Each structure stands twice: as C-alpha cells, then as structure tokens.
Amino acid sequence: MIIDVLRQEHRNIEKLLLVLERELSVFDRTERPDYEVVWAVISYFKVYPDAYHHPQEETVFKKLTARDPAAAAKIGDLAAEHRSSSERLRRVAHAVESVLKDQEVLRQTVDDIIRDFIAHERRHIAMEETDFFPAAVNALRPQDWAEIAMTLTDRKDPLFSEIVEARFELVRKHILQLEQEAEAERRRTAGQ
Could you report the per-residue pLDDT of 119-164, keeping only the tens digit for each? Predict the structure, then answer.
C-alpha cells in the first residue's frame, strides 16, 4: 500500500535528519563537520522528497479532499507545507554554501537555519503520520488506491533502495555507522 511506502520514506528521512543533527553538533563545538555528508544530505532532500515523495502525498491528498473534505480541511494546505519545506531547504543550502565559501556568517545563524529545517520536517512528518495518513486510510476506497497507484512512478529512492546512487554512498555509510553506534549503546545500557 502506498501509505506503507510513504511511512517507510518518513523513517528514512528521519535517519537523514539524525545525520544532519549529528553534523550540526560537531559544528556547534566549533569543529569541522563532514561537509561532504552534509551536502549529500542536502542533495538528497533536493532530489527525492520534492520530485517523488511529496507529489505522491499530494496525489493521495487530492483523493482525500474529494472523499472527505472535512478531514482534508483539518490537515490544511499540504502543498503549501511542502513548499515551505523546500524554502527551508534552500536556506540550509545557502547557509552551508556561505560557510564553505568562508563568507561572513554567524555560526548561530547557520545553526538556527538548520535546526529550523530539522524541526519543521519532524513536525510535518508527525502531522502526516497522525492526521493525514489515518484520514486517507479511513476515507479512500480500493478504487482510489488503484487510481493513485497508476499515477505513481517506479523511481526508487536514490539512497535507501537496493541500488544506491554514487553521490549518496557516503551518507549511506554514515547512516549505517550511526545505526551501529546506537545499537552498541543500547547493548551497553542494557548490560548495566
């Protein structure tokens, strides 16, 4: 079901937000984060969510609006939310570019811009998971899901599918390292 795919993509996005958060904590300590990883995360957000994930959600939302306008109204303007995400991402990319070009930019400004992006993404995903997806599952009929499925692309996620695009390989390795460290920490805490 498309909702299951969208939920998995949200979990993948959360992994990237954790990577970004971790690199930001390095930046906050006045150390040099791995800008290659940061830039790869930004590139991923430029490539996949806007081109594939958000259009799929918006297709589901159009069907929801037709089936249950009241539920859709409670969710609000999903397309505007997605545009807001894109604008926040542009600010993140600009801030990182400024740092990489040694332009005058306050560390706190860069920190604020990136933290705003992360917080907005998490709030947006939480709204979709708790309000939008359940409303769609309740309101849409099998024929709606079939029509939605026919409009979807078979494009695979460039980072989380079996075939990882080369430019995202570094981020994938970084995510795997974070997951291994988290698992080791869980085992260490469980053994205490």
Answer: 999 999 999 999 999 999 999 999 999 999 888 766 666 566 565 5
Domain hosting 22: range is: 2-155
Whether residue 191 is contained in a domain is answered as: no
Q: What distances in angstroms separate CA 67 from CA 70, 73, 122, 157, one per listed residue?
A: 9, 12, 27, 29
Rounded CA gap, 35 and 97, in Å?
A: 10
Answer yes or no: is 31 within a domain.
Answer: yes
Cα dihedral: 80, 83, 87, 88 (round 10):
70
DSSP H stretches of helix in 50-191: 54-67, 69-75, 78-100, 107-127, 133-139, 142-151, 169-190
Q: What DSSP state is assigned to residue 101?
A: T
Q: What does the pLDDT average to over 172-185?
A: 69
Minimal CA–CA distance to 95: which of 104, 82, 86, 84?
104
- Provide the number of structural domains found in the chain: 1
In which residue are the tokens 């079939």 written?
Answer: 146
Each residue of 33-58: b (16+ CB within 10 Å) or e? beeebbbbbbbbbebbbeebbbbbbe
